């Protein structure tokens, strides 16, 4: 059977999404201390590796199988991908698996420089199975928030085209839970600076590149793909300007880390709405998301929680902003309701709000239970001397840099 254009595009888009997880490793790695860059990047790479295995064995079934337990889960092993041979059946497995990889990798940025590597290796497969897969099923697979689920029937189906709630809000909440569980780094109040800003910029650039596959991979028409592509171009651009503006209002100068973070915040915000808003709305959304994320990252200094690499501000806040914005600016569609600006009434806004609330409460609760269990089994936090000396040497017997005179 010859490969179709649509199947070829899905293969290409999925490959772009796979690139995003190591790109995140670069982005996060540059933001850590020089003595923690190896550990930080390995957390992204191992998240991708373990999620790939989990997804093929049972994760995809949990996220897309026949509804069970009242629509709370897909039936495990309903679609046992490991035994599949038909490309048409396996393409959705691979594409969805790439999304799961980046979702769990995002969380790692909140616990940089102080988490035991073994604890992370235990956390990843459990979180993908018990948190990510159920949420993906609820929103995309026919579960309780989908049109076929009981919450979807009661409050209306929410729009989350590429994962503003499923991925970014979900991972952002989990990141906050782990940051609170592990506590702040020993030098948290000294405001540790990124050790390699060019690495941060390179990671952000590769994330932007991969994000075109992330958002447009599920496009079904040329017109829809064009809209998604332009929105994915313009929203992060506007978010960078929003972040710079917020830095200016604080009396600060523009920074490379700020520009990179603003770029990612804009990408996060446009993710749920990329196929459902006009370019003017994408521009406005990016601007608002960039300013909101820049404001939110400063909360950790005021409230005292150590979200090391600003996962909460960039992913949770921007993800919620992008998800709720659809209630106001969603274009009229054949199947989806319009936002308030287009005369759609409050129904869509209610659906988006309910989705955010359900994801926040579920992710916080189950992630908290997983975090406690991991801590009881093997412990999360490295000892103080290891943290001060640098986690790379103790956990991996490696160094990110070998400087020879």
Automatic annotation (TrEMBL):
SUPFAM superfamilies assigned to the protein according to its UniProt record, in alphabetical order: Ammonium transporter (SSF111352)
TM regions (residue ranges): 6-28, 40-60, 90-112, 119-141, 161-183, 195-214, 226-246, 253-271, 277-297, 309-331, 351-374
Any Pfam family hit: Ammonium_transp
Keywords: Ammonia transport, Membrane, Transmembrane, Transmembrane helix, Transport
Source taxon at top rank: Bacteria
Protein's UniProt keywords contain Cell inner membrane: no
GO terms for MF: ammonium channel activity
Coiled-coil stretches noted in the UniProt entry, renumbered to this chain: none
Family stated for the protein in its record: Belongs to the ammonia transporter channel (TC 1.A.11.2) family.
Protein name: Ammonium transporter
Origin species: Glutamicibacter creatinolyticus
């Amino acid at each position: 059977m010859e490969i179709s254009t649509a199947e070829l595009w899905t293969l290409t888009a999925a490959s772009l999404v796979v690139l995003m997880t190591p790109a995140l490793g670069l982005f996060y790695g540059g933001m850590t201390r020089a003595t923690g860059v190896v550990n930080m990047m390995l957390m992204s790479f191992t998240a991708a590796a373990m999620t790939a295995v989990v997804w093929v064995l049972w994760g995809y079934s949990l996220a897309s199988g026949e509804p069970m337990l009242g629509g709370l889960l897909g039936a495990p092993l309903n679609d046992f991908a490991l035994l599949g041979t038909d490309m048409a059946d396996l393409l959705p497995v691979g594409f969805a698996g790439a999304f799961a990889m980046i979702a769990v990798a995002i969380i790692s940025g909140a616990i940089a420089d102080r988490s035991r590597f073994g604890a992370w290796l235990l956390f990843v497969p459990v979180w993908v199975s018990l948190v990510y897969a159920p949420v993906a099923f609820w929103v995309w697979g026919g579960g309780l928030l989908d049109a076929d689920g009981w919450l979807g029937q009661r409050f209306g189906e929410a729009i989350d085209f590429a994962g503003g709630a499923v991925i970014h809000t979900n991972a952002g909440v989990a990141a906050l839970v782990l940051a609170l569980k592990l506590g702040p780094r020993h030098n948290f109040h000294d405001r540790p600076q990124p050790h390699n800003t060019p690495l941060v910029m390179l990671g952000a650039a590769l994330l932007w590149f991969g994000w075109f596959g992330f958002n447009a991979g599920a496009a079904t028409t040329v017109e829809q793909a064009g809209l998604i592509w332009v929105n994915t171009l313009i929203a992060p651009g506007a978010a960078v300007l929003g972040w710079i503006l917020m830095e200016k209002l604080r009396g600060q100068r523009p920074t490379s880390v700020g520009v990179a973070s603003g770029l990612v915040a804009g990408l996060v915000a446009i993710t749920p709405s990329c196929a459902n808003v006009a370019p003017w709305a994408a521009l406005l959304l990016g601007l608002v998301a960039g300013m909101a994320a820049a404001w939110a990252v400063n909360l950790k200094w005021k409230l005292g929680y150590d979200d090391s690499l600003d996962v909460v501000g960039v992913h949770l806040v921007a993800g919620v902003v992008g998800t709720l914005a659809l209630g106001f600016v969603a274009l009229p569609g054949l199947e989806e309701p319009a936002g308030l600006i287009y005369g759609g009434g409050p129904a869509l806004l209610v659906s988006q709000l309910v989705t955010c609330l359900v994801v926040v409460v579920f992710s916080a609760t189950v992630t908290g239970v997983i975090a406690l269990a991991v801590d009881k089994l093997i412990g999360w936090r490295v000892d103080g001397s290891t943290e001060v000396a640098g986690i790379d040497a103790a956990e991996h017997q490696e160094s990110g840099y070998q400087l020879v005179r």
